[in-house]
Every structure is written in C-alpha cells, then in structure tokens.
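Predict structure. Chain length: 262.
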Amino acid sequence: MSALDKYWHFKTLIKYRAFIILCVCFLPLSANANHAIDNRIKIVTEILPPYQYVGKNEQLDGYAVDVVNTLIQRLNIKIKVEVYPWARAYNYALHKPNVLIFSMARTPLREDKFVWIGKLHHENYSFYSLASGRAVDKANLNEIKPYTIAVTRGTALEQFLSKKNFEYLEKTNNMKHAIKMLYKKRVDLIFGDDFIVKLLTKEMNYDFEQMKAVFKVPEINADLYIAMSKHSDTKLVERVRKAFNRMKNENIIADIKAKWQM
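Prediction complete.
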C-alpha cells in the first residue's frame, strides 16, 4: 500500500470512528430523554372526590386522575402521582420547581404564583349550614363573620376568607372532615363547592336534605386547573401544555368528562 493509499485509509478510518462515536453519544440521549423527564417532574394532588379519590384495589381514580394519567401516557413517561393533604401538595408546587399539581382553583391570588396548564372543571362555592343548627340567614359576607366556619386548609377558600378577615375558621385537612364537623355541630357553617359538598355528604351517609346553602359567593367561583410550579423548566412546561392541548383538540378531555358525567 502506497503512502497516499495509507493516508486515505487512515482518513476513512478516522471518519468512520467519528461517526461511531457520534452515534454512541446521541443514541442514549434520545433513548433516555423521557427518563430524564421522569426524574425532573413530580406530580402531586389531594383526595377530592370526584376529581381524585382512592378507588378499587387502593388505586387512585377519578375524573382529574383519568385526565392526568392520559396526559402521562401522551408524554410517554413513567411516574406515580403522589397524594398529600392539600396544604402540603400546594407548598410543594409553590416552592419547588418542576412540580405538576391538580386539581387547583385558578384565582386572582394564585394567578402569578403558578404556570397554568389546562382547565379541568368549573366550581361554584356556597356556605352551608344544618337546618337543625344555629340559624343562619344572612345577606352579605360581613354578617357571616361571627359564625364558626370549617374550611379545608391551604385551599383558595381558606385564602379568600383569611383575606376577608374571617377570624373563626376551623381549618381541616379535607372537605370530609369539614362536613363531619358540621353534622356533629362543632361548627356553624362549611364553605365548599356545591357539587362536591352534595357528593361527599351522600357518600358519608349523611342526609343532605338536612343541609342548606345559606349564602352563595359568586365572586370566588373558579375554574379547576392542572398547574405547574412557577420556576419549572420552560421546555418541560411547554411539552406538558402541548400534550394537554392536543388532548383537548382531539376531544379526549371531553370524552373523559362525559365518562365521569362531569
């Protein structure tokens, strides 16, 4: 082999080896892209029927869980939804990056604190009392302030009442606890979404007919959303949002809503 032949043989060998190195470098990046997302994102929620609750075989179920599980499949990632009391889940999303949280009311107080991915449902809020309890028949919020009110800790409802300077709040871990306190006459009122209050009251085998909505608060009615923490990776947020929007445009969200009769 001549010197020239050896030179071109060497050049070809170098190019071939460089190609192999590039393949070795880039293939794992592609193969592990979803795994990298798995490690970066954390998904948190609370127990809030019918959106999310523990169903058969101790598995998390519900309308919002169905939506999020479909979203996870669309993202092609493997991750488990973690369940906490709402205040803890909320604080995770408030203070840590790359946290996805659901189902969260989108309110003016929260607007700039989170990145909003997509709407799940709309909620209407009212104060409820027992017909057999302390008489409550008031025309405005200020007239309700002297009453003791059970409200779930860390929720938009608690934030709303605190901002309005309500003093007599019994803060609970969940709405079921609030309903239980009302029926045991440990509080005068509970504050919650009409649909959820009725559903949980019946699920707990209490007579909903004994309860009455005494004051509606349309100013706080809100949409429930999937959201992400404020300082999340922008590319990650965009990927999640695009996947949700595709689900919406393909009527996947509407189909899941119909399935759960929402």
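Summary: The first helix runs from residue 3 to 31.
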